[in-house]
Amino acid sequence: MLAFVIYKAVLCVIIFAISLGVAAYSTWWERKFASFLQDRVGPNRAGPFGLLQPLADGGKMFFKEEIIPNVSNKFLFILGPCLFMVTACMTSVVIPWGKDFMMGGRNFAFQITDINIGVLYLLGVVSIGVYGIMIGGWASNNKFALLGAIRASSQMISYEIAMGIAVIALIITSGGTLSLHEIVEKQDAGVCNFVYQPLGFLIFFICALAETNRAPFDLAECESELVGGYHTEYSSMKLGLYLFAEYINMFISSAVMAAFYFGGYNFPFAHELYNAMGLQEGSIWISLIGFGAYFTKIVLFICLFMWVRWTLPRFRYDQLMNLGWKVLIPLSLVNLAITTVVAYYFNK
């Protein structure tokens, strides 16, 4: 029992550290990625290739002056970014990062917790994240911040509907399970879910862009209209929490899409590779190789997020809402209907 508790505690710390590390270096990679697309150099002063730039940015955030507006609700002003950061970190606990492995005669899961309603937990925690934005924008007592918060909340609510319907179609394809571990395991022997749900994946990806406030859906914080959106009045590490949480959400969204539609830690010819290496089922090396494959998929999705940001122009807000209500929700309903009919006739 003690070994189990220690293992889970260590796993929590490792996943938390990986989330923060990926979020920090996503800022560096995004600037490098943008500079490549725009034919310029990007950050190159802080360390070799600018690799210490995230540390310099973090230090700047820590040492900047802490400003809380006199007209703000101070308790909620502080609570907003904290809540947004906490909900961003909570989503990673149900994600299976690799296969189970045996050690000392005991089975250890490469997952903090495998609950049988993992998908519902994921959607529930993601929906709570909007409260951090709404509270922060309202507590600032700034009209630009409030407008940004209202935009973010209405945008998230609109796109969560299409995302939820797309996930229902995925659950039907996966045999009705709500466990992320089982969804990934069902893609081990067969074809990944993207083959069965290409439209569902496209809907989920677009909704993930909107949920994470990434371009072209970054109307909640567009500088040309709202100065900085819901975090206009924030400075120092409270602003840092908002910015960090957005990159953590992008990392987790990439991990969820890789798990739902591309097999997670599974990859083509994995069993042939394990047999050639002489690895037995339950080996920790299988878990680590699977984690490497999973992390590669996550990095590719993060690059896709960045590619979309630096390629597509920002929508007008009416176009954003029309896309959510008049295009994505009907498409997700059509996808659900087709999935239901196919599943019914194939399971007869």
Short description:
The protein has one domain (2-346). The chain is 68% helix and 3% strand. The protein has helices spanning 2-37, 53-63, 74-90, 118-139, 143-173, 180-185, 193-196, 198-211, 223-226, 236-261, 270-277, 284-309, 317-346, and strands spanning 98-103, 106-110.
Account of the protein in words:
The chain has 13 helices and two strands, in the order αααββαααααααααα. It is mainly alpha-helical. It has one domain (2-346). Helix 3 (74-90) packs antiparallel against helix 4 (118-139). The radius of gyration is 21 Å and the shape is globular.
Task: Please supply descriptive tags for the structure shown above.
348 residues, globular, single chain, mainly alpha, two-stranded antiparallel sheet, 13 helices
SSE inventory with pairings:
Elements: H1 2-37, H2 53-63, H3 74-90, E1 98-103, E2 106-110, H4 118-139, H5 143-173, H6 180-185, H7 193-196, H8 198-211, H9 223-226, H10 236-261, H11 270-277, H12 284-309, H13 317-346
Antiparallel strand pairs: 1-2
Helix pairs in contact: 1-2, 1-10, 1-12, 2-10, 3-4, 3-10, 4-5, 5-8, 5-13, 8-10, 8-13, 10-12
Structural class by helix and strand composition? mainly alpha
Cross-sheet strand order for the largest sheet: 1-2
Content of β-strand: under 5%
Mean pLDDT: 88
Total beta strand runs: 2
Low-confidence stretches: none
**Series of secondary-structure elements, N-terminal to C-terminal:** HHHEEHHHHHHHHHH
How many helical stretches? 13
What is the C-alpha radius of gyration, as a whole number of Å? 21 Å
